[in-house]
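Entry type: protein chain
Record version: 2
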Amino acid sequence: MTIKEIEQTTGLPRSSIRFYEKEKLISPIRNASNGYREYSEADIETIKKVTYLRTLGISIEDIRKLSNKEADLYDVIKAQSQTLEQQLSELEHAKLICERMLSSNEKIKYENLNIELYVTDVKDYWNKNSNVLKLDSVSFFYIWGGNIVSGIITIICFLAAVFSIKYLPAKIPIQWDGSIVSSLADKRFIFAFPVSCIIIRFVLRPFIWRWLKINMLDSRSVTDYITNYLCFLALSVEVFIIFYVKEIVKHVTVVLFLDTFVLIGLLLMAMYRTIRKEE
């Protein structure tokens, strides 16, 4: 069967089928004469099973383990059932509190909200909702991954290109083999870095978010963190090129060191905030 026929048979979009193939959950053969993928009946059944398990909230990683016989379906379903039970309990509790708040004779307002009217033991309530509150401990994701930081990095990238281009030689290095330049480009290539920031944010970001959404909970903030870090890497390379032609630095490893230093610093900040929140 062709992928079009698979779409018609399963009712699933082509993007989902391609994703399952990319994750190696199905392995269609290639037609030797035209190179097109050909899907078997076994592929159809696998697609149906994978899609059904995804609707239950089971992760791609767990499904892969099932496919590789590294996990037992009963155990996976049981664990997911317990997870859903916990989530339902938390949601039901939150729903009851919302109903209590709405049942007040007066319209509730943020300015005069008194949580003690709805929660008997505040500390115990925080502990019971620790899973939600732990997300707040990674607030550096939201700070680093925000649109403001993205805009600042892009603007710095652009300004660095604008103010440096007249001081750059006709050809600038863009590739190194160790400490030796292996490739040169016209100096206008320096504008590729702010352009790459825009492409990363508006073109690459949706693909990263889509993949993370399938595999983890807090996908949007992590996606923003990753895309902004890639933009930061582009800025770092741009600055390195400028410094290199001015003979201020000579080794590209300086860029890798500084970027790694920033990443580790942010992660240590997250760990510190998490520990402080749990104390």
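Comment: The chain has a mean pLDDT of 83.
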